[in-house]
Specification:
Blueprint: H1 3-8, H2 14-17, H3 23-32, H4 41-49, E1 61-66, H5 72-85, E2 99-105, H6 108-123, H7 126-129, E3 132-136, E4 139-142, E5 146-152, E6 163-169, H8 184-196, E7 201-206, H9 213-222, E8 231-236, H10 238-241, H11 247-256, H12 258-264, E9 273-275, H13 279-284, E10 301-306, E11 316-323, E12 330-338, H14 344-357, E13 362-365, H15 371-378, E14 383-386, H16 391-403, E15 407-408, H17 413-420, E16 422-426, E17 432-436, H18 443-455
Helix pairs in contact: 3-4, 5-6, 11-12, 16-18, 17-18
Length: 468
Amino acid sequence: MNIIDTMTDPQLFAEQFSGDCWDNWRVLLKAFYALPLDDVDLPVYEQLTARREAPTTPFKELWLAIGRRGGKSQNAALIAVYEAFFNDYSDKLSKGEVATTMVIAADRKQARSVFRYIKGLVDSCPMLKQMVLRENTESLELSNRSVIEITTASHRRTRGYTCSCVIADEVAFWMTSTESANPDKEIINALRPSLATLGGKLIALSSPYARKGVLWEAYRNYFGKDDSKRVLVAQAPTELMNPTLDREVIAQAYLEDESAAKAEYGAQFRTDVESFIGFEAVEAVTIPDRRELAPARVNFYIAFVDAAGGSGQDAMTCAIAHLDKHTNKLVLDVVRAVKPPFSPQNVVAEFCDLFKAYAVKRVIGDRWGGDFVQEQFRDRGIQYTPSEKTKSEIYAELLPLINSERVELLDVKQLRQELTGLERRTSRSGKDSIDHAPNQHDDLINSAAGALVNAAQVRKFIPGLPIG
């Protein structure tokens, strides 16, 4: 059976996929597997892929830049089931080896989304259900020496597998920075050899985001390119792929944030988002092997705190910096980060001990927590002053300090990752804002940037010293 047969067979998945709303998806899957396209299909194929020539051989990779709620996950699940259940790889497998269909996402919670669709398809079909030998919340082991399992986006964890299919979910939101522990390009490059033995399929899907990362590169290199016989890229707004979605939902999204809606539902890569700072600029001001500097009496230290509640996703962080009187450089001395879960009172006590070692009597911090946070520090002899500047304003002031190499950063990997992962966004009014990318964090760099930027204005913190 080919994949279109599985979509339309009443004993398989016709109940879910036989409706007219799946017509455009059927055309796309026909093209991916090089099944014949009729005269009605060809204009749709051209609209989705910007290609003019019908494919004659199956593709190895399918990159889907499709709007939210457009049916990406359901069709990715269908491909995963088709590749795992309807193909026999035993003649290519060594003894003890299995063909793995891997569902990979930024985290396990997200990967389970596609896996639930896979489970739903299998559970709805008694014939397929009989092939399942063992199952748990993250894997299905089949009687034909195939396994479907989920994993997280890591170039190390994905090595060593023999894959028949890889589903890379929401790939536009994987980390792209070369300073990341798992850059998206390295993960994809690690997966391709895993697919080589069985001639497997790579299915990468996401609503588009910024003009960077592996989805953008695939789009730029292969979209509309008839000469590409290995990689097929499709781009389509939500309404084209899922005409059943309430249009009011999309209209409301455009009303609230047009730029975001163009990406989320219109499947357009954002032009208002760009990287805040390059890796080379950060590397130029990072002092190799300097993890922390001991306190010195000659320095006047500035501390900054990014508070957190201890039970969410955010870490509680602090940083200490000073202005070197001889070199006029802004030196980052120490950073601390405590990941949840934690007791805020205990972390405040730990931070206060650190501040006192550097003779810091007053700290600056964000406005999270209000009087509660200020009181916790005040009870331990440290004055806590809410920052006059927003996080975005602090980052904006840090950039010229780094570009002019007036800063000395500690050689802390998390610090570099968060700094190079910052993004600049331009609103409809033309105002810029700087923040971390979706699903990422900036807790540590927020404290470091706050300490450095305030250290640049150290004179206003020293009693009796004139400003200017």
